[in-house]
Amino acid sequence: MKAKLTFIAGLGAEYILGSRAGRAHYDQLKSSVRKLWNRDEVQGTVASVQESVKAQAGEAVNKLVHQVLPARESVAENSDAFRYAGLHSGRGRG
Question: What is the pTM of this model?
């Protein structure tokens, strides 16, 4: 569905940018697009996609947090070990 909407939007943009027919055709197209956009079916799909994206974004943030926090702790532990061993500046003990 998203691909179809993108394709239609691309066609509309191409028509607007490439049209030499004048303002009347632009206004007609604009009116048609506005009517299409305001249809209940389209707005229902838009709302559905927005909710889906919000849900997936929340899940992505949770996954990221659960992966980053342990990595951060591991890096902090290792950096303390490197600091203790004198390895942080490229010098070893000896």
Answer: 0.44
Domain map (residue ranges) of the chain: 1-38, 51-94
pLDDT tens-place values along the chain, 94 residues long: 777 778 888 888 777 777 666 777 778 889 999 999 999 999 999 999 999 998 888 888 888 888 877 777 777 776 665 566 555 555 545 4
**Calpha distance 2→57 (Å, rounded):** 17
Which residue intervals of the chain are DSSP H helices?
2-18, 23-37, 40-85
CB atoms within 10 A of CB 71: 9
Q: How many other C-beta atoms lie within 10 A of the C-beta of residue 2? A: 8
What is the DSSP annotation of 34-51?
A: HHHHTSHHHHHHHHHHHH
